[in-house]
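From the shared-data thread, chain only:
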Amino acid sequence: MGHSDKEITDRVIQARERAGLNKVEFADRIGLSKQGYTPYELGKTAFTVQQLFKIASVLGRPVEYFLGLDTGLTGREERVLILFREAEKAGYGDVVIGAVHAMVAQLLTSAGQVGEQVSDKP
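Structure, as tokens:
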């Protein structure tokens, strides 16, 4: 396993732990048994591209994070995205968008930037 594979594995482990998932729970969510997952976490087997996309989906992070590529997001922006994805999975994505939209509009109004338009459209 190459140096970059170890870095990918380290990022997967770190993200799994931050998500509060143990090895068994995580393995199940990405479609592996604990025994099937163990070689990956021990660094004996490298993740496939398809597995990285599944891992990214399960952990709410972009694939670029696991590959060590620049996502173009600051740490704070990435945290907001992770929180949104968690809410979206639970069926509350629209609620979060509405709440953020209302909060930003209120902040801009309070700051005297009433002319600014806040859109909830991408």
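The chain has a mean pLDDT of 87.
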